[in-house]
C-alpha cells in the first residue's frame, strides 16, 4: 500500500475511533448532539464534527479537520483538548509527515512536527 493510501486509512480509523469511543455526547434521540465523521478520499479531506441540538440550541462544531497534502497529514483544526495526533503517531505516522497547520507557518518550525 502506498503512503497516501495508508494515511487515508489511518485518518478514517482514528476519526471513527474518536467518534465511537471519545465523543462528548451520548445521543438520547436523533435530535441530540452526535459525533459525525466526514470522509472525502477523492479530495483528501477528513473531519469529525459535533452536530445536533442541546438545551434548545443548535450545535455544529468541526472538532477535527485533516487534509492530506503532498504526502503529509495536515491537521487544519483541533477544537478539542484531545490529542488526536498521538493516535496518528501510534499508528506509525512519523512526526515528519504531520503538519500542525493550525499554527502560523512561521511558528511551525518550533514544533517537533513538519513545517510544511
Order of helices and strands: HEEEEHE
Mean pLDDT: 92
CATH level-four homologous superfamily name: XisI-like
Strand fraction: 25-35%
Number of domains: 1
Instruction: List the total number of helices.
Output: 2
Low confidence ranges: none
The appropriate CATH architecture is 2-Layer Sandwich
CATH topology: TATA-Binding Protein
Q: Give the end-to-end Cα distance, rounded to a whole number of Å.
A: 23 Å
- Computed over alpha carbons, the radius of gyration is 15 Å
Give the strand line-up of the largest sheet.
Answer: 1-2-3-4-5
Largest sheet: 5 strands, mixed
Number of strands: 5
What coarse outline follows from CA principal-axis ratios?
globular
CATH class: Alpha Beta
Question: Key features?
Answer:
single chain; 116 residues; alpha+beta; TATA-Binding Protein; 2 helices; 23% helix
Amino acid at each position: 500500500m502506498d503512503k497516501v493510501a495508508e494515511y487515508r486509512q489511518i485518518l478514517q480509523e482514528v476519526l471513527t475511533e474518536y467518534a465511537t469511543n471519545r465523543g462528548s455526547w451520548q445521543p438520547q434521540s436523533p435530535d441530540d448532539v452526535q459525533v459525525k465523521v466526514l470522509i472525502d478520499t477523492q479530495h483528501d479531506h477528513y473531519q469529525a464534527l459535533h452536530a445536533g441540538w442541546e438545551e434548545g440550541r443548535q450545535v455544529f462544531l468541526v472538532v477535527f479537520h485533516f487534509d492530506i497534502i503532498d504526502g503529509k497529514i495536515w491537521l487544519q483544526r483541533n477544537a478539542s483538548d484531545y490529542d488526536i495526533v498521538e493516535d496518528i503517531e501510534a499508528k506509525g505516522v512519523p512526526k515528519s509527515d504531520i503538519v500542525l497547520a493550525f499554527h502560523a507557518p512561521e511558528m511551525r518550525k518550533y514544533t517537533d512536527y513538519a513545517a510544511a
